[in-house]
Amino acid sequence: MTTAPPADQLRLLEVQALDTRAQQLAHQRRTLPALAKLAELEGRISDLHGSLVESRTRLADLRRELAKAEADVEQVRTRAARDQSRLEGGGVSARDAVALTDELASLAKRRDALEEVELDVMERLEAHEDALAKVEAANDELLAEKAAVEAERDAGWADLDVQVAALATERLRTADGLDSGLVSLYDKLRGQLGGLAAAALRGGRCEGCRLDLNPADLGVAKAAPPEQVVRCEECGRILVRVGQ
Fold first, then answer.
1. CA 124 to CA 176: how far, in whole Å?
2. Is CATH 1.10.287.1700 the right assignment for the domain spanning 32-173?
3. What is the pTM of this model?
4. Which residues, in sequence order, are bridge partners of residue 231?
5. What are the residue boundaries of the structural domains of the chain, listed by start?
6. C-alpha–C-alpha distance, residues 238 and 108, integer Å
7. Residues 184-227: pLDDT tens digits?
8. CA 75, CA 26: separation in Å to the nearest integer?
9. pLDDT tens string 29-63
10. Which residue among 56, 181, 198, 244 has the highest number of C-beta atoms inside a 10 angstrom radius?
11. Coiled coil where (predicted)?
């Protein structure tokens, strides 16, 4: 049978209130609204990241395609310029002149076709650059929003940390000198009962489980010596008799 001075039992209720508040602060830390918002933003950023990678890869492909198209056009232009120079420079036979003229006509058609390809690639590249710019702007906006929410989260955590530190100091002061047997029982029950180990017995009701004690159990609790630590028959918590 555990015994402890009545004053220690009453002070145990103060310790319990502080421990309950500490649990509440821990819960607040885990459930800050900013944390849910951050999770949502990180999901959206992750989804957008895939689109960004795909879009940037496509942009690189289009730039390579444009470079090839420009090189093809330049190759034809260079060859046509060379043929034109030979034709205008004289010194070629009539047969070679006809061949050069035919080749120039063929090269002109080839150049026109390649320039159409080049123009098509340029248009697709421009459209893709515009689309990518919009995706990057959306990503930048999400990152900025995430940074703002992270700052909100950190401010919330800092405020809670101050409260937790003050609460810890107050608990040390309140628990100082309590009966060791009472404290051992309290700590054991806290681990078993979700943190609420001690409750007041007030008006025949256990304020831990919120149930009224039956008349027999209530009579036993009231008749017990003041230094005896009594327990609730319903929930097993330490019952601190108040108002007796």
1. 76
2. yes
3. 0.74
4. 238
5. 6-26+179-241, 32-173
6. 100
7. 999 999 999 999 999 999 989 999 999 999 999 999 999 999 99
8. 71
9. 999 999 999 999 999 999 999 999 999 999 999 99
10. 198
11. 52-152
